Amino acid sequence: MALTFIGAIIGLFAGGPFGLLAGAFIGYLASTALQRTVVGGLRVAQSELIESIFAVMGALCKADDVVTRDEINTVEHIFGMLRLNDEQRGMAKAAFSAGKQADFDLDAAVDRFAAISRGRAPLVQLFLQLQCMAVAADGQFHPAEHTMLVRVAGRLGLGEQDVAQLESLLRAATGAGARSGSGRPVQDRLTDAYVALGVSPDAAPADIKRAYRKLISQNHPDKLASRGLPESMRAVAEERSREINAAYDLIKSSRGFV
Asked: Is 82 in contact with 37 (CB distance < 8 Å)?
């Protein structure tokens, strides 16, 4: 609409009433072409994002040589979180299967995601969060899976500490490695909660509250959206916020402060 109006104004000044009509028509064509280009580009980017997420996920789940039923169930749960339609689910399943193959080029797949994300920290963080959710679905982070996660994070500009914090956040919030339902000792979860918030077990309540508020603010879905997070990833951001709150609640309960 804006390009149609602009074309009409330019045409009016350049050629009078006839120019007005010609300019409006040209502006309409330009607007339609631009819309098709943008929408088409978004579809391509979304497809590439889905393929990158699930191809890398397939490789990570296969890192310990066994893809468990719990991991498959969690991958299907992630389909729902991302609100994938039937076509996108088929694409995701194919990418996941490709990632499990022995000749899969993990580094190339991660580099493709890096090109899509263009260094947007929220998208990178939630990409890794999804990977952690999948590989921990069987109740643990296998050493081979952790090593591969660190490798993936490294190619995205993050370090082992970032991976450890994500793993700790997931363990502290769920009471298990992931969605398996197997319980873990409260003390182990508490240790993970401190790591997740980035504070030491002997930190003062004021410091813990400050760390929590900073972390929850940085990960608020609305704030992440303003920094370029796709709407399709909003549910992942909301899940991350719930996990941060769960870790903080665990520490508050243990320390007895409000």
From this structure: no
Predicted confidence (pLDDT) per residue in 194-249, tens digit: 988 999 999 999 999 999 999 888 888 787 777 666 677 788 788 888 888 988 99
**End-to-end C-alpha distance for the chain, whole angstroms:** 53
For residues 237 and 231, the answer to whether their CB atoms sit within 8 Å is no
CA separation for the pair 134, 177 (Å, rounded)? 10
Q: What does 89-154 look like in DSSP terms, one character per residue? A: HHHHHHHHHHHTSTT--HHHHHHHHHHHHTT-HHHHHHHHHHHHHHHTTTSS--HHHHHHHHHHHH
Q: Which of 72, 80, 118, 116 is nearest to 96 (CA)?
A: 72
The H-or-E segment that residue 170 falls in is helix 160-174
CA 241/CA 246 separation, integer angstroms: 9
Look up the pTM and report it.
0.71
